[in-house]
Every structure is written in structure tokens, then in C-alpha cells.
Amino acid sequence: MNYKIAVIPGDGIGPDIVEQAKLVLTEVGNKYGHSFEYKEVLAGGVAIDKVGEPLPEETIKVCKESDSVLLGAVGGPKWDNLAGDERPEKALLGLRSALELFANIRPATMFNQLRDACPLKDEIIGEGGLDLVVVRELTGGIYFGERGREGEEAYDTMKYSVSEIKRIAKVAFDIAMKRNKKVTSIDKSNILENSRLWRSVVEEVAKDYPEVEVNHLYVDNGAMQLVINPKQFDVILTGNMFGDILSDEASMITGSIGMLPSASLGSSKLGMYEPIHGSAPDIAGMDKANPIATVLSVAMMLRYSFDLEKEAKAIEKAVEQVLEEGYRTGDIMSKGMKLVGTKEMGKLIVEKLN
Ligand code: IPM
Ligand code: MG
After folding, report:
1. Distance of CA 144 to CAs 4, 157, 239, 330, Å?
2. Reduced to 3 states, what is the DSSP secondary structure of residue 345?
3. Under CATH, domain 1-101+268-354 is a member of which superfamily?
4. Where are the domains of the chain?
5. What residues form DSSP beta bridges with 320?
């Protein structure tokens, strides 16, 4: 089968890592008899520089006509002085909303080989490492509510509807059914009215999943629990802003931030896949970036958009093997390991697929 993929390299290290992910994907295609057709489009700072806006109409059009979107990273200090709506980040928000990608899936998995990079004490991690997934609502809440300025005041509105909460809750419970059957919903319902609605809708949805254990935490406590007892979590379900914050925290405690992929999904098969890390402009184009998070994002694409589980697993296994053999990019380098660049890391993963 032929799959059309819109590719958004973006800014900073984006082009470096996306190039390697494409090589890996192409190799998977060769090996398993699929073909992937890439169409490169502009978004982020590079689009501001070339066509004067962070998210050109053409980009949205190509993405909508594709089977999936692969994104590197957007943003950088060069564009930091621009106003809110003109910034590279606007491209991300615009794509999420134009493609109706309401569900953001961010696994926080600890790689056994990188255990030493985990900032938590050994007794907190215990046996088996860490493996949880944050399911973040992505097209609602305070990110998309009305905002503005009035004289000396500024405001942002946090709003959720029953249907928005319901559909993201279902995604979380469906994922939990394929994992350890536990959902922890995180809100601030001791204060916020929309959080009270959130909690009651999650309770309703939970009734359809009698096998899944569900509990609720306030976000402050949830942030604390992530560092004192992260192993209690299987699937964390939360809103847009809390999910932004908690997914960074969750990824950091695995010690593997350069390794973690993400998927943004809607109600169709079209998804957007990207590493969770940023554009690291300081090492852009220097063959130093770690391409693994992007490579693993491509594995998520195969799994969630194309239902190619075997192919997804093959990529994940190839990454494991390369780590097992001691190859490391600078960000995950430790004593006694073999330092490699972006391209070499990509090549090693491609080799392991065979
Ligand atoms: C993320 C990022 C984005 C967000 C920014 C860059 C708009 O932090 O994907 O987590 O806040 O959603
Ligand atoms: Mg973030």
C-alpha cells in the first residue's frame, strides 16, 4: 500500500532528525512492501522567514490531503520577539486545530539502557523501570479559549464542553484497556468549575469500562505524585494546559527526553507525529541531535494511523538493539559508550531493521 505523508521539518534540529526518521520509514517500506510518499511543507520559523507567516494555507491543505503528518520541531530565539499570533508556536496550535487533533498521546517510557539518566532515586524506580502514558486534551481548554487585554488587565478563558471531555476520556480508557487498565484523571476540581465538569464526565465514561480502575487527583498533588511515586500511574488523562506541564515532568523523570515520541490524533486515521523535545537551535545542522524520538514517532505513526503493528515493533526493537550495543548521541552519552552523530545513529537503526 502507498501512504502519503506530509513532512514538516520545521526549525533548528527539525530537518536533521526528520531526515533520519524518513530513512528509517523508507527502509521499513522496502522490507515489508509498503511505499511512503513524502511531501515537504513549511511551518514554524522557517515559514515566517520564507513566506511571512508561521502556518501557510498550503501547509494545511497538504496535511489534510495526506494520510499522516511527520513534524520535526518549531521555534527558536530568532522569532522570540514576535507577537503571540505571529510566533512559530502558532503553527503547532493551528495544525492541531485545523486537523482536529484533539488527543495527544505522550508515552513516558524509561529505556533500561538509560536507567542511570533517571533523576529519581533507585528505590523509587524499583524493578522494571517506568512506563506510563499521558493522554492530553489538545484542542480545547485555556489554550483555545477567548483571550485578550483590557486596559491594565489580561485574560485567558478555560472552557470545556461535555463532548470535548467525553471524546478524550474515551481515548484514555481505550488505551488503558490495552495496557494496565488504570486511568488517573488529573484536574483542579477543588477550584475550577470546568474541572468539576471534567471529573463528572470522566466518571460517566468510566461506567463503560468496568475493567478499568479510575481515580482522580488534583493537579498539584499529581505533579508531586509523579516524582514520589510514579509507578502508581498507567494512563494519565488530563486537559490541555495541565497535560502540557505534566507531560514534560513525566518525560523528564524517565531521563530520556531525547527519546520520547508523541502522537496527536483526531477522529479519523490522520495523525500528526513528532518528538516531544524542542528545536535545540544551538546544535542545529551540526549532526549532533538525537533522532531517536522522531524515529519512534514514526513507529507510532505506523501503529496508530496505518495499523502496521509489526512494522512499528520492528522499529522499536531496532532502537533497543542500537542502545544495547552502546551507541549514544551526545545528549544520552555516558562513560564507556560509543558516541555517534545524528546520521550515524539513523544509519545504525536502519541496519538493525535487517
Ligand atoms: C508542547 C509545546 C507546545 C504546547 C507549545 C510549543 C505551543 O510545549 O507541544 O507541549 O504548549 O502545546
Ligand atoms: Mg509542552
Report:
1. 29, 8, 12, 37
2. helix
3. Isopropylmalate Dehydrogenase (3.40.718.10)
4. 1-101+268-354, 119-253
5. none
SS3 244: helix
The minimum-distance atom of ligand 1 relative to the CA of 74 is: 6
Q: How many helices (H) and strands (E) does the chain have?
A: 12, 14
Query: Half-sphere exposure (CA, 13 Å, Cβ side) for 235?
Result: 24
CATH for 119-253 is 3.40.718.10
Q: Is 244 in the pocket of ligand 1 (CB under 6 A)?
A: yes
C-alpha 80/C-alpha 260 separation (Å) is 25
* One-letter identity of residue 332: I
Please tell me the residue having the least CA distance from ligand 1 atom 10. Answer: 244
> For 255-305, how does the pLDDT look when each residue is reduced to its tens digit (9 = 90+)?
888 899 999 999 999 999 999 999 999 999 999 999 999 999 999 999 999
DSSP string, 9-75: EESTTHHHHHHHHHHHHHHHHHHHT-EEEEEE---SHHHHHHHSSSS-HHHHHHHHTSSEEEEEE--
pTM above 0.85, yes or no: yes
> Do 1-101+268-354 and 119-253 agree at the fold level?
yes
The CA distance from 42 to 200, in Å, is 41
Check if the beta carbon of residue 20 is closer than 8 Å to that of residue 346: yes
What pLDDT does residue 185 have?
99
Report how far residue 325's alpha carbon sits from residue 342's, in angstroms, rounded to the nearest whole number. 16
Query: Could you tell me whether strands 68-73 and 261-265 are parallel, antiparallel, or unpaired per DSSP bridges?
Result: unpaired
Residue 84 has pLDDT above 80, yes or no: no
Average pLDDT over the chain reads 96
Are the beta carbons of 133 and 179 closer than 8 angstroms? yes
CA of 29 to the centre of ligand 1 (A): 31
By DSSP bridging, strand 103-109 and strand 261-265 are: antiparallel
* Catalytic hit among 143, 160, 209, 327: 143
Nearest CA to ligand 1 atom 8: 244
Element housing 155 (H / E): strand 153-156
Average pLDDT over residues 308-331: 96
